[in-house]
TrEMBL record:
The lineage of its organism: Bacteria, Bacillati, Actinomycetota, Actinomycetes, Micrococcales. It comes from the Bacteria. Pfam families: Pyr_redox_2, Pyr_redox_dim. Residues 22-353 form the FAD/NAD(P)-binding domain. This is NAD(P)H-quinone dehydrogenase. Belongs to the class-I pyridine nucleotide-disulfide oxidoreductase family. NCBIfam families: PRK07845.1. Its cofactor is FAD. Keywords: FAD, Flavoprotein. Residues 374-480 form the Pyridine nucleotide-disulphide oxidoreductase dimerisation domain. It comes from Georgenia alba. PANTHER family: MERCURIC REDUCTASE (PTHR43014), NAD(P)H DEHYDROGENASE (QUINONE) (PTHR43014:SF1).
Length: 487
């Protein structure tokens, strides 16, 4: 147990600052490897325990693979504008229309290859910085030494036991796909988002259960790749947690492209048949398909790590409770990423990890500010958001104004054949930009100027007075800012 002096230090929320502090990070995803780089930069001795591979699920089975797959699908959606742009085909060798098609074997081979390359690059970077990588599974010991150090017990990939002593521990173990007891995945026909890269051919008919971000992204991607897709949504519309106008636009695009969207429909069970799957809905209907993706959220990877015995407080859902500098309630234990349940974004995980090390090692640090987090949904078109929402302004929670500009009015959009999408900008009573939404191709890139404005508390007039390229899609951001000018 800790000495009285150590207990007093913990109660005061203080952290020791010393050159050569020993940091052990459990989990090598964005939260873990970004924290490792900061800790090493500040002079700490760092070890990262990772059982899957550097980059974690974000690089190996989630963000990097899914967005690589979506990149191929995006090229196919771009061809929708071909006739308007004067592009046509003389037809293929069999007399067809020469329609572009994706070879899923090639696509998924590229997905796996890029994920591995990214993982290898991260590992090389960490090793070059002198960070120790321990392949295996970590468990936190409950005891604290009289000097305040803690122990992490590791079962290595070779089955050996190893103990690491730490002055600071960071938990960055991420999350795994949530499994429904009535929809057990088999990795062949009934799949989680981590198993979608096992496929070698485009599904004849993919049934997607869950219309959140993951479900919508995969449904849109496979629809563009040529699969028939049925999207089962338990809510009134797809993407229920997102900007209402954006979600309605994406659902309309899905339907226009031939996707069947079953709103207010909840899956009761998914069963494998001789040649496909059956998805039974709670109202008794049965949807048949060749494959089913069950995308109903994630479960924090916190079980079996000895966390509660070590003093870490978990929520009912199993998430690690942290404050805005990533501290848990356990002495010298921090946490970052999806295991905390703060926001399931790689960018947030990375920032939480960096903040944890800045705080733990005594560097200057600002607490996590979720109002400055930009997020993106990689549908086609993409949806990017930051800051205050329109709902908060309309409800009176935030005093402010809203402007909405259809992207089709933009000259560059007309040249590119872009007809669907918009730019929204929100400002408070003083004219300061407090949020925005962009629905457009490459919205993930276009949101950056608005993110700068929100973070730096720029006014709409300051944004409007920045030169933009003509013609450019960013011109619509400037125009939106001008419409919010107050005389």
């Amino acid at each position: 147990m800790a000495s009285d002096e150590v207990r007093r230090e913990h109660a005061a929320g203080a952290s020791p600052v010393r050159e050569g502090s020993r940091v052990v990070i459990i989990g090598g995803g964005p939260g873990g490897y970004e924290a490792a780089l900061v800790a090493r930069q500040l002079g700490a001795e760092v070890h990262v325990v990772e059982r899957q591979g550097m980059g974690g699920s974000a690089v190996l089975t989630d963000v990097v693979p899914s967005k690589t797959l979506i990149a191929t699908a995006e090229w196919l959606t771009v061809t929708e504008q071909a006739p308007e742009l004067g592009i046509s085909s003389d037809g293929g060798p069999d007399g067809d229309a020469g329609t572009l098609r994706a070879d899923l074997g090639v696509v998924d081979g590229r997905v796996v290859r890029l994920a591995k390359n990214q993982s290898d690059d991260i590992r090389t970077r960490l090793e070059r910085e002198g960070i120790g990588i321990v392949p295996g599974t970590g468990r936190v010991a409950p005891t604290i030494s009289s000097a305040g150090s803690r122990l992490v017990h590791v079962t290595t990939d070779e089955g050996q036991d190893r103990t690491l002593e730490a002055d600071i521990i960071l938990l960055a173990t991420g999350a795994t796909p949530r499994i429904l007891p009535t929809a057990e995945p088999d990795g062949e026909r009934i799949l989680t988002w981590a198993q979608m890269y096992n496929l070698t051919e485009i599904p004849e008919h993919l049934v997607v259960v869950g219309s959140g971000v993951t479900g919508a992204e995969f449904a849109g991607a496979y629809n563009a790749l040529g699969a028939a897709v049925t999207l089962v949504s338990s809510r009134d519309r797809v993407l229920p947690g997102e900007d209402e106008d954006a979600a309605e636009l994406i659902e309309a695009v899905f339907r226009r492209r031939g996707m069947q969207v079953l709103a207010r429909s909840r899956a009761a069970a998914v069963r494998r048949t001789d040649d496909g799957v059956e998805v039974e809905l709670t109202d008794g209907r049965v949807v048949t398909g060749s494959h089913c993706l069950v995308a109903v959220g994630g479960v924090p990877a916190t079980a079996g790590m000895g966390l509660e015995e070590a003093g870490v407080q978990l929520s009912e859902s199993g998430h690690i409770e942290v404050d805005r500098v990533s501290r848990t309630r356990a002495y010298r234990i921090y946490a970052a990423g999806d295991c905390t349940g703060v926001l399931p974004l790689a960018s947030v995980a990375a920032m939480q990890g960096r903040i944890a090390m800045w705080h733990a090692l005594g560097d200057a640090v600002a607490p996590l500010d979720l109002s400055a987090v930009a997020a993106n949904i990689f549908t086609a078109p993409e949806i990017a958001t930051i800051g205050v929402t329109q709902k908060q302004i309309e409800s009176g929670e935030v005093e402010g104004d809203v402007t909405h500009l259809p992207i089709a009015r933009n000259a560059r959009a007309k040249m590119l054949g872009i007809t669907e999408g918009f730019v929204k900008l929100f400002c408070d009573g003083a004219g300061v930009v407090v949020g925005g939404v962009i629905v457009a191709p490459r919205a993930s890139e276009l949101i950056y100027p608005i993110a700068i404005a929100v973070t730096q508390r720029l006014t709409v007039d300051q944004v409007a007075n920045v030169f933009t390229i003509y013609p450019s899609l960013t011109g619509s951001i400037s125009e939106a800012a001008r419409t919010l000018h107050r005389a």
